[in-house]
Amino acid sequence: MTAIAAHRKSRRVPITVDPETLGGEPVFTGTRVPVKSLFEHLEANCTVDEFLEWFPSVSREAAATVLMEAHRLTIERTRS
Asked: Is 72 left (phi over 0), alpha (psi -120 to 50) or beta?
Protein backbone atom coordinates (compact mmCIF):
# COMPACT_ATOMS: atom_id res chain seq x y z
CA MET A 1 0.00 0.00 0.00
CA THR A 2 1.41 3.39 -0.96
CA ALA A 3 1.69 6.23 1.54
CA ILE A 4 -1.08 8.11 -0.28
CA ALA A 5 -3.38 5.09 -0.21
CA ALA A 6 -2.68 4.55 3.48
CA HIS A 7 -3.40 8.21 4.18
CA ARG A 8 -6.69 8.12 2.32
CA LYS A 9 -7.68 4.97 4.17
CA SER A 10 -6.92 6.29 7.65
CA ARG A 11 -7.67 10.04 7.25
CA ARG A 12 -6.24 10.48 10.74
CA VAL A 13 -4.01 13.50 10.75
CA PRO A 14 -1.44 13.22 13.56
CA ILE A 15 -2.02 16.71 14.96
CA THR A 16 -3.03 17.53 18.50
CA VAL A 17 -4.29 20.87 19.75
CA ASP A 18 -4.34 21.13 23.54
CA PRO A 19 -4.31 24.37 25.54
CA GLU A 20 -1.96 22.66 28.01
CA THR A 21 0.64 21.93 25.31
CA LEU A 22 2.51 24.94 23.94
CA GLY A 23 -0.50 27.16 24.62
CA GLY A 24 -2.71 25.31 22.14
CA GLU A 25 -0.25 25.43 19.24
CA PRO A 26 -0.94 22.48 16.87
CA VAL A 27 1.75 19.86 17.51
CA PHE A 28 2.54 16.44 16.13
CA THR A 29 0.56 14.00 18.26
CA GLY A 30 2.62 12.56 21.10
CA THR A 31 5.25 15.30 20.86
CA ARG A 32 5.79 18.95 21.69
CA VAL A 33 6.96 19.69 18.14
CA PRO A 34 4.82 22.38 16.49
CA VAL A 35 3.48 21.39 13.09
CA LYS A 36 4.44 24.80 11.73
CA SER A 37 8.09 23.92 12.37
CA LEU A 38 7.92 21.31 9.58
CA PHE A 39 6.75 23.94 7.11
CA GLU A 40 9.26 26.51 8.38
CA HIS A 41 12.10 24.04 7.88
CA LEU A 42 10.92 23.18 4.38
CA GLU A 43 10.63 26.89 3.53
CA ALA A 44 14.26 27.26 4.69
CA ASN A 45 15.28 24.59 2.14
CA CYS A 46 15.76 21.83 4.69
CA THR A 47 14.79 18.33 3.64
CA VAL A 48 12.24 16.17 5.39
CA ASP A 49 15.11 13.88 6.38
CA GLU A 50 16.89 16.79 8.07
CA PHE A 51 13.71 17.80 9.88
CA LEU A 52 13.24 14.22 11.11
CA GLU A 53 16.87 14.08 12.23
CA TRP A 54 16.45 17.28 14.25
CA PHE A 55 13.06 16.21 15.66
CA PRO A 56 13.37 12.45 16.23
CA SER A 57 10.09 12.31 18.16
CA VAL A 58 8.24 12.97 14.87
CA SER A 59 7.82 9.87 12.74
CA ARG A 60 8.30 9.87 8.98
CA GLU A 61 4.70 8.67 8.66
CA ALA A 62 3.40 11.61 10.73
CA ALA A 63 5.35 14.16 8.68
CA ALA A 64 4.20 12.57 5.41
CA THR A 65 0.58 12.49 6.55
CA VAL A 66 0.65 16.18 7.51
CA LEU A 67 2.21 17.09 4.15
CA MET A 68 -0.32 15.01 2.21
CA GLU A 69 -3.20 16.56 4.13
CA ALA A 70 -1.84 20.06 3.44
CA HIS A 71 -1.61 19.12 -0.23
CA ARG A 72 -5.17 17.78 -0.27
CA LEU A 73 -6.55 20.91 1.40
CA THR A 74 -4.65 23.16 -1.00
CA ILE A 75 -6.06 21.32 -4.01
CA GLU A 76 -9.59 21.40 -2.57
CA ARG A 77 -9.42 25.14 -1.93
CA THR A 78 -8.13 25.93 -5.39
CA ARG A 79 -10.95 23.95 -7.00
CA SER A 80 -13.76 25.65 -5.09
From this structure: alpha
| Burial environment of residue 44 by CB neighbours within 10 A (0 to 12, 13 to 18, 19 or more) | exposed
- Residue 57 CB neighbour total at 10 angstroms: 12
The count of domains in the chain is 1
The predicted-structure confidence for 30-53, as pLDDT tens digits, reads as follows 999 999 999 999 999 999 999 999
CATH code, 50: 1.10.10.10
pTM: 0.81
Domain containing 20: what range? 3-79
